[in-house]
Amino acid sequence: MSGRHLRGKSAIVGMATAGMGEAPGFSAMELLGQAAVSAVADAGLALQDIDAVFAATSGHAFPTMSVVEYLGLRPRFFDGTNVGGSSFEMHLLQATMALEAGLCDAALICYGSNQRTAGGKLVSMSEPQWHETPYHPRHPITAYALAASRHMAQFGTTREQLADVALAARGWANLNPQAFARGPLTRDEVLSARMISDPLTKADCCLVTDGAAAVVLTRADRARDLHEKPVYFLGAGVANYHRSIVEMPDLTTTAAVDSGRRAFAMAGVDRADLDLTMLYDAFTINTILFLEDLGFCPKGEGGRFVEDGRIAPGGELAVNTNGGGLSCVHPGMYGLFLIAEAVAQIRGQTGKRQVQDCNLALCHGNGGTLSSQCTAILGSGAVL
Description:
Thiolase_C_2; nine-stranded mixed beta sheet; single chain; Thiolase
């Protein structure tokens, strides 16, 4: 089954972010709370209307319990599935299923982190250590560097092409007042930046920031009565084949091949129909891998695909229009910020970076070390 019966059955009716970049003095839960309260208000609802909670955090073993307690909620349904940064694309699917089953009426998906001001570093302690420990890796960077090195060796991908991904992200960030990293960036600066894990320099790696985001979903029939333009859930797909990078079947091919295929089948759309593509760019190699695995170009052609500003402002494919994890925000788990940007674009609320006639958006989340892959497709009422 493709799950086509879920297409268009739910809609995002509220969205908000908080603490983007740096938010000194606030805990992760306080930032999450700010985004959640604002998203509920954006939907024209009250907190007591929320009867389902979906959350994943890196700081709470029982995230939904913590959220429910902090916000004073009494949900009928909750789920704390944590598959890394892709958790929130999965939560879209789970929330839609719960709404369609009548288990809830208004679902909150939320995340918050103060990773930057709490002194966090881009090192993941969630990675399995038994395989890699003897080699003293720096997770997660070392794992992504392995994928980048293999792609370069197998397909001739160059560091210059990786740099083009970073340049495109910065170009979009310069149009986004909320982006943390703004200002000029040249290819030479990317290539000459401090090497972190060969072949990835500091400029090939995502930011370490604070930030929170939240969205509210309800059933489509109710969404039409609320004051914000509904952004409909059209489809989603998930896939996961490994956790440790040394167990990844092929360092140049991710499970996005399958998550994307499933999402497109459920949504009943094709890549050519998309107006916006939001990809989890924790590292520059991610964007290249996901463009290939989601079918935008053949395997091995991703490096050449991103050359010459193709995914930058003014290029033929709008990718990561907020500036991505490379230049906008990356507070540990980035997947919900992909969704937030897609919602803002479909609503027409993104100012200078607005994609013209944006009605159909793909959000692709990545968790672990190229491990869990979750793809979701959202659209306006025009594509139902």
